User: Which sequence fits this backbone?
């Protein structure tokens, strides 16, 4: 999970709606459903997220899965934050493409279900004291990535932070079959290229830059995994060429 630095306000219409925030779950649901400027808000969110899903860091557009506007703190729990731009993020899976995604899982014989904002756990009540948000500045430190595609709590966490990491992984279904397969593919690609560069005495810094730096205002998928894969080299590249991503 990559920390998202909030920028701007989401536009005039969102700001106007937030001047009179909903007070009940029913009002929040009704007003959000009738809010006709979601696409503009979504574009702003994706721009500040470099096109990555706020939770999984998937480039959902590369898989034709689309995005939806996610309420980090659910509307049902905090209706007054329904139009609060600081509570919004872009999450993978367009609500209109859920059936197609479900069919894809069956066709590819992948276990699991929806993930991110559409995960079953996130649709229920969320313990915000345990939940790790991408708006939390140190969110990346809670998670580690394994070469087989799994995401697990980082090793250096205390007991409470380990519990928070496990809770968030389970709640968002971040270890879904689909995500594990995609992360393993990405890891294998990085590993193969890394080994080739070592064998041919090629510049590892240039390889890291290719995978870590933005291209056309977008990042490659799984930025945090990639950053941890390259380790100190990643920190040097980002410090020099994209300190805003640190």
Assistant:
């Amino acid at each position: 999970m990559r920390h998202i630095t909030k920028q701007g306000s989401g536009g005039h219409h969102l700001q106007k709606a937030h001047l009179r925030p909903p007070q009940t779950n029913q009002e929040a649901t009704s007003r959000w459903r009738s809010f006709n400027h979601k696409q503009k808000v979504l574009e702003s969110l994706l721009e500040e997220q470099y096109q990555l899903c706020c939770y999984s860091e998937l480039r959902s557009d590369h898989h034709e899965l689309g995005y939806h506007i996610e309420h980090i703190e659910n509307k049902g729990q905090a209706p007054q934050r329904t139009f609060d731009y600081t509570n919004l993020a872009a999450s993978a899976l367009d609500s209109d493409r859920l059936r197609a995604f479900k069919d894809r899982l069956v066709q590819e014989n992948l276990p699991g279900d929806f993930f991110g904002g559409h995960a079953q756990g996130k649709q229920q009540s969320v313990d915000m004291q345990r939940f790790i948000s991408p708006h939390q500045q140190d969110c990346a430190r809670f998670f580690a990535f394994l070469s087989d595609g799994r995401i697990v709590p980082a090793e250096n966490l205390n007991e409470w932070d380990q519990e928070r990491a496990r809770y968030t992984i389970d709640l968002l279904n971040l270890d879904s079959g689909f995500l594990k397969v995609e992360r393993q593919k990405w890891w294998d690609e990085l590993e193969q290229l890394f080994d080739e560069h070592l064998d041919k005495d090629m510049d590892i810094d240039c390889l890291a830059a290719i995978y870590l730096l933005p291209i056309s205002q977008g990042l490659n998928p799984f930025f945090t995994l990639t950053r941890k894969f390259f380790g100190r080299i990643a920190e040097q590249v980002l410090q020099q060429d994209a300190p805003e991503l640190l």
